[in-house]
Design goal:
five-stranded parallel sheet, globular, alpha/beta, four-stranded antiparallel sheet
């Protein structure tokens, strides 16, 4: 059974989320403050954390380094700057209030599936097995570098969403991000397009969102 920690100070919303998600046969732990969430994290491991940003004893962003699990931020802050800050701080997804419980359940299910080891992704002409390191286009093997694999995985796991350049650089290069030339991301994107796209100069899948970052297009 998957364990999910909800950190939400609004009692009615928190209880609604707890009951709504428990219907999916997940174990749900609800806490209403940073302190309470910290205690829950110290007591056991979670598979996912749903984290409010505005909490009575501080910002939920302070908890991100301690979660040890994927995090979906739930917040009333709906500006692009807020979303970028949340993702750059280490969150895996960002949902603004008010939101549909059905949509949240779908996003939670998708995130938990992505964390399952050995899961392969099949999309049209592509087959990507990030665990088995088997990448194919129309059945033909693709030779991807480790950096290309990391970037592709981030884009595919978040397909349909725009990932800012800063987030991609941080996630792909990790502790070396501060020393990486920003042009390295553009070069890696170009190499991926050369291997994945029929017309790399007119990409169909790995799209640029100018001034923001990149996205893997879905439902083509």
């Amino acid at each position: 059974m998957k364990r999910i920690l909800i950190v939400e100070d609004d009692r009615a919303l928190g209880e609604g989320l707890r009951l709504g998600l428990r219907a999916e046969d997940w174990e749900i732990i609800l806490r209403r403050s940073l302190a309470g969430a910290g205690e829950a994290l110290a007591e056991g491991k979670f598979d996912l954390v749903l984290l409010d940003v505005n909490l009575p004893d501080g910002s939920g962003l302070e908890l991100l380094p301690r979660c040890g699990a994927p995090v979906i931020l739930l917040t009333a802050r709906d500006t692009e700057e807020d979303e970028i800050l949340g993702l750059e701080s280490g969150a895996d997804d960002y949902i603004t209030k008010p939101f549909s419980l059905a949509v949240l359940r779908a996003r939670v299910s998708a995130r938990l599936r992505r964390e399952e080891p050995g899961e392969a992704v099949e999309m049209g002409r592509f087959y990507f097995d990030f665990q088995g390191l088997d990448f194919r286009r129309e059945g033909r093997p693709l030779d991807l570098s480790r950096t290309e694999q990391k970037l592709l995985r981030l884009l595919v796991e978040n397909r349909g969403r725009v990932l800012p350049r800063a987030v991609l650089i941080d996630r792909v290069w990790g502790g070396e991000a501060a020393e990486v030339d920003e042009n390295a991301l553009s070069v890696t994107v170009k190499r991926l397009r050369d291997k994945l796209e029929e017309e790399p100069s007119r990409p169909r899948y790995l799209k640029t969102v100018y001034g923001v970052g990149y996205t893997w297009v879905v439902d083509l």
